[in-house]
Predict the structure.
Amino acid sequence: MSDRYFVQSPVVSDRVVLVGPEAHHLLHVMRARPGTCITLFDGSGWQFDALVEQIGRNGVELTIGGRQQVDREAPIAVTLGVALPKGDRQKWLVEKVVELGIARLVPLETERGVAQPRASAVERLRRGVIEASKQCGRNRLMEIAEPKTWPAFLAENATAECRLVAHPGQSTPPPPTSAPRAAVAIGPEGGFTDEEIAASVAQGWQTVDLGPRVLRVETAAVALAARLIG
């Protein structure tokens, strides 16, 4: 199991108190005791060697030893807009795109969406980002943005150098790109409506096809992300 733990507050001194679910996992799952060595990260890109000093009711007191800036981010900053699938498929989707190196995920509100992104669901996804980052070694957290309507998503990513919309039935596969930023969009199970596709094309987005088979939302998201990031 991973010995990496996420600390919510930036690590700016040589002492840290680990609280909440991370402290619970360290104490009650990993059975840590004073003297146990772990690795902390705070989402800033740094990771820290830490030693358990004291266990209290309100958390675990740690002493910071070494600190390293370890960059495991993808060479291209990808924003993924996706109409979320239902249930546990959301968790799987987040886990895999964190592993691939996606920088930002935006839940989309679309005409045919089946799982409208509520605040409680967004918070669960953010916790999933932490768990996946602990496992895969990322020291920066993928951002889970607030849900966006389709027009708002198109507008806020208008300056991305590469903008792709997955749309079955097209003849164009995802192109290779060396752009520093990309925005990609995956629609719901029923796909984007003709009007949604027309709106994206009118604003300079390119529609792309992911192959002859029908892919689920989460599979399409992973396939497109992997092709871009490599």
Residues 106 and 120 are 15 Å apart (CA to CA). The chain has two domains: 4-69, 77-229.
